[in-house]
Amino acid sequence: MSLKDKISKKTVKIGIVGLGYVGLPLAVEMAQAGFNVTGIDVDGKKVSMISKGKNYIPDLDENTIKSLVKDGYLEATSDFNIVKNLDVIIICVPTPLNKMREPDTSYISSSINSISPHLKKGQLIILESTSYPGTTEEIILPVIEKCGFRVGEDIHLAFSPERVDPGNKGFSIKNTPKVVGGVTKKCTDIASLMYAQIADEVISVSSPKTAEMTKLLENIFRCVNIALVNEIMILCNRMGIDVWEVIKAASTKPFGFMPFYPGPGLGGHCIPIDPFYLSWKAKEYDFYTEFIELAGKVNQNMPYYVVTRISEALNDVQKSINGSKILILGVAYKKDIDDLRESPALEIIKILKERGAHISYHDPYISEFEVEGSIFNSQHVNEKMLEEKDCVVVITDHSNVDYNFIAKKASLVVDTRNALNDFDYGNIVKI
Ligand SMILES: NC(=O)c1ccc[n+]([C@@H]2O[C@H](COP(=O)([O-])OP(=O)(O)OC[C@H]3O[C@@H](n4cnc5c(N)ncnc54)[C@H](O)[C@@H]3O)[C@@H](O)[C@H]2O)c1
After folding, report:
1. Which CATH architecture has domain 301-430?
2. Is the distance from the beta carbon of residue 166 to the nearest atom of ligand 1 less than 6 Å?
């Protein structure tokens, strides 16, 4: 039976390499669609949790995972030997930056090197990890060819970017169009057919490079627009204009404007990182991506700007950062998720600590974390503890926080998200 027939009949066996924020939801979606899915991860803890039907990603439901595992649709392993039994292998491993802020594609290389000894004719390999244009054909394709397979004939290869937005209740894998670009037309067709089983709409593009660039354009668009609105906010503040009111008013224009909101800086595994994959690659073409560099500069400066605003707010009540008791409200990089990666809260806490502040925090999604050797535990918020603080700084606007209570009981609040807009008792400073 051809791979296409097997996909249509749902008899293909699928492997998802990397069971993180991207890989596990994809594995669950595929298993729910009736496919037999094996998650492969080098992290034994994650494998053991999935094998026991346990969940560790906030957007997913543990009971769903439990029943998928029990009914034999979903399993997990750290053993790449399983690859020889699979028809489709989708790679969802991390793509961070190294210390020099250059792309670190070592996870992609290491996963394809673990997969390659077990490859067989007729398989489809898809990369979902965000990376620079050329990654699929420059890193994955040569490894497959070195094993003696012809891509497009023996083995099919494509790139399809993950567009998941953690915490977003409106858009899921199913109703977010899936972009697919294969090395050959046949690769694109087979990979598109695979995704058509779980996504309402599949958009085929002419090459993996096009699909890789599509994902980067989406993220760079966000990064540049956030930087723009952050810069406008700093100017508005100096001019005595409320930027939030400006954005609300500008958003009434029914065409040609899309609102972006200022904040304490970028966070997460995508927006602060992915644009630099492109600026790095562009240099190979003697090209300098100035918008990306400028946006990076503005956004990376935001934690320092927030600290300046905290310092000014304390100064207005004859206090200094040095010696002040400061409660950080929300440390996740955005609302309603438990992801601390690249969160601006970490940088802000680090600077405040260096300047002598006594830091505590509350985050309903993150019970503990470490900054430069210091362990912090989430504190319960009550009237007494709020009264003891010199300043409360809202970094993340989680939905399940009683902002009215905070506004009423805290002596001073610095709000980086406009979360307390409805509850101003004269003690709130917007950044
Ligand atoms: N998190 C997001 O919101 C998001 C959205 C869109 C795209 N992406 C992209 O998707 C990719 C994955 O991101 P994520 O957030 O899921 O990362 P993650 O860190 O949550 O998960 C990655 C998983 O891969 C595993 N892993 C690492 N090396 C491996 C290997 N050699 N073999 C098998 N497993 C391995 C890790 O143990 C981890 O469980 C990245 O390229 C990211 O840029 C992420």
Report:
1. 3-Layer(aba) Sandwich (3.40)
2. yes
